[in-house]
Amino acid sequence: MRIAKLKVIGIRLDSSSPIDEDAGARMLLQINYLIRSKQDGKYLVARMPEQSGIEASYLLVFQQDYDALSYINAHGQEFKDLLTVETASPMQLKALMARWKYAGFGIVKDPLLPDIQFVA
Predict the structure, then answer these.
(1) Euclidean distance between CA atoms 74 and 115, whole angstroms
(2) How far is residue 69's CA from residue 111's CA, in Å, rounded to a whole number?
(3) Distance between CA 36 and CA 45 in Å, rounded?
(4) Which end of the chain is flanked by fewer CB atoms within 10 Å, N or C?
(5) Residue 55 in 3-state DSSP?
């Protein structure tokens, strides 16, 4: 089974809300939680088309471990055995962003809706 299906399930994009650059600074001051595939090691991302037509990937970041687990339970129940929740320090998050060339990250404010705030 492919984990890729989970990458688009339950993500609601709100183009009316601006990208919050201050949220990025706040994220670098705390421990963050990420969802990662046990099969191939890829992180859960939101994919959004950019104006140039190229798809941009935003790393989904959770503020609490239980929020990440709630997201899996709500939107990826069939994949729960294939996913794990990892911690990421501010330095690790910065390195991940550079290594995998993510366009930014999505701060998951409410994992059940989900409500995601994108930061470039």
Answers:
(1) 13
(2) 9
(3) 10
(4) N
(5) strand
CA distances to 27, 56, 100, 108 from 87, rounded to whole Å, are: 13, 23, 17, 15
**Which pair of structure tokens corresponds to residue 21?**
């650059």
**Alpha-carbon span 24 to 22, nearest angstrom:** 5
Q: Which residues contact 4 (CB under 8 A, 6 or more apart)?
A: none
Per-residue pLDDT of the chain (120 residues; tens, 9 = 90+): 333 333 333 344 444 444 455 555 555 568 999 999 999 999 999 998 877 778 899 999 999 999 999 999 999 999 999 999 999 998 999 999 999 999 999 999 999 998 999 988
Dist CA 80 CA 44 (whole Å):
13
Separation between Cα atoms, residue 19 and residue 45, nearest integer Å: 16
pTM of the model: 0.76
- Assigned token pair, 39: 């099969």
